[in-house]
Amino acid sequence: MNIYLNGNQTSVFENLHLEAFLREQQLFEKKGIAVAVNNNVITKSSWADFKLKQDDKILVIKASQGG
């Protein structure tokens, strides 16, 4: 199945949960990230239960300090 991570298409197994995908991408342990799927923010507590679907668009944003 195909999904998009920050605009880049990638192939994944069907019935993959968001948490497993983020672990595969080495993003799960990163601090200060926010994740949205199809423009809906998914809270970290929901990542393990959120099942990805064909053509989902995942946006991962890392918080940064600045001023």
Characterization of the model:
- This protein has 67 residues and is mostly beta strands.
- The relative contact order is 0.30.
- It has a single domain, classed as Beta-grasp domain (Ubiquitin-like (UB roll), Roll).
- A 5-stranded mixed β-sheet has the order 2-1-5-3-4, with no helix packed on it.
- It is built from 1 helix and 5 strands, in the order E-E-H-E-E-E.
- 10% of the residues lie in helices and 33% in strands.
Fraction in beta strands: 25-35%
- Helical percentage: 10-25%
The structural domain count equals: 1
The span between the termini is 41 Å
| Name of the CATH homologous superfamily | Beta-grasp domain
**Shape field:** globular
CATH architecture tag: Roll
Overall CATH class: Alpha Beta
Assign the structural class, choosing from mainly alpha, mainly beta, alpha/beta, alpha+beta, or little secondary structure: mainly beta
Major beta sheet summary: 5 strands, mixed
CATH topology: Ubiquitin-like (UB roll)
The counted number of beta strands is: 5
Spatial extent as radius of gyration: 12 Å
Question: What's the mean pLDDT score?
Answer: 94
